Amino acid sequence: MDEPHIRAATVADVPAIAEIVDHAYRHYIARMGKPPGPMLDDYAARVLEGAVSVLEKGGAIAGIIVLLPTTNYLLLDNVAVSPARQGVGLGRRLLAFAEAEALRRGYCEIRLYTHQTMVENQRLYASIGYEETGRGTEAGYDRVFMRKQLRR
C-alpha cells in the first residue's frame, strides 16, 4: 500500500496545486456568488515563499496545504484535497501536519479562517479542537476566524 507522504512543494508542482484548488473549491462559487479566495491565490509565489506543502499518494499530488508564519501563530491559509481523493482521511492528515509543523516552528497556536457559508468546514474544524474567535468581512469575504491552542 502506497502510504501518503507530505513534502515541500516545488515550482514543478504549481500546475497540479492550482488544479486541485480549482476542483476542490469550484462547487462553492454558486454558494458564495464568487470564486473563493484560494482560487485566486498565486501558487507560484506561495511555493517560492516556501509556504506550500503537497501530499502525495500513488505517485500523484492528492492534496495541498499553505502555511504562513506570523509573529505569534501559524496561519493555516489553505488546505485542499482533490475531490477524487476526499473522504479517506487525507485532509485530516494535512491538518495534523499543520499542527505538527506549528509546534516544530515553536508556535503554540494555529489559526485559520473559512467562509461563513462553508459550514461543513466549520464543523470539521470544531470537531478537531478549533474554536471560533470571531466573524467579519476581510478581503471582500464574510469569514469565520478560528484557532487551536497546541500542547508541546
Structural class category: alpha+beta
How many E-type strands? Answer: 7
Residue fraction in strands: 25-35%
Overall average residue pLDDT:
93
End-to-end span in angstroms? 31 Å
DSSP summary: helix tally: 5
Walk me through what this model shows.
There is one protein chain. With 152 residues, the chain is an alpha+beta fold. It has 5 helices and 7 strands. A 7-stranded mixed beta sheet has the order 1-2-3-4-5-7-6. Strand 3 and strand 4 form a beta hairpin.
Quick recap of the structure?
The chain has 152 residues and is of the alpha+beta class. The chain contains five helices and seven strands; from the N terminus they run βαααβββαβαββ. The N and C termini lie far apart (31 Å).
Please give the structural blueprint.
Layout: E1 5-8, H1 14-25, H2 28-32, H3 43-49, E2 52-57, E3 60-69, E4 74-81, H4 90-104, E5 109-115, H5 119-127, E6 131-138, E7 141-149
Parallel strand pairs: 4-5
Antiparallel strand pairs: 1-2, 2-3, 3-4, 5-7, 6-7
Q: Any descriptors?
A:
152 residues, alpha+beta, 7-stranded mixed β-sheet, 32% helix, globular
